Amino acid sequence: MSDEAELPETMATYLRLRGLEPSPFRTKRRRRRTDDDENAPFSPGRDPRGLGDVLANLTQSAGWEPQLAREDLVRTWHDVAGADTAAHTRPVALDAGTLTIQADSTAWAKQLQLMRAQILSEILRRFPEAGVEAIRFVGPDVPSWKWGPRAVPGRGPRDTYG
């Protein structure tokens, strides 16, 4: 009887009509969430993220990582090759996994051919997503003597110099 006196009369009447006895201890039960909705407040994964993390997730989901890695390789060529080497070279193309580097002179191109393994390993270490499999070193652009509709095979005007 004392339990019914503590309950409001409307609640006691409701419980009697439903066939439920009022419990001697009124405790408030908390309902546990069983669903792991990521939009629920205070759930794991709802912490704020940095802009870098958000952009990294975006580039990964959009499939932009290989192209961005290639752009980073060109942009940071002076760090990859070294300051002295970068002063005399520049990346000009990346086609089918082959990176083409143009040097100021044929001497620089030959020297870089000897350093090919070291440069390639540095590129693979820093930019594995770029897809670089080989490096090709070329000398400077030189004028061609082969032009015009009547060009003939041979050495060109240089064969008359001697």
From TrEMBL:
<feature type="region of interest" description="Disordered">
    <location>
        <begin position="1"/>
        <end position="52"/>
    </location>
</feature>
<protein>
    <recommendedName>
        <fullName>DUF721 domain-containing protein</fullName>
    </recommendedName>
</protein>
<dbReference type="InterPro" id="IPR007922">
    <property type="entry name" value="DciA-like"/>
</dbReference>
<dbReference type="Pfam" id="PF05258">
    <property type="entry name" value="DciA"/>
</dbReference>
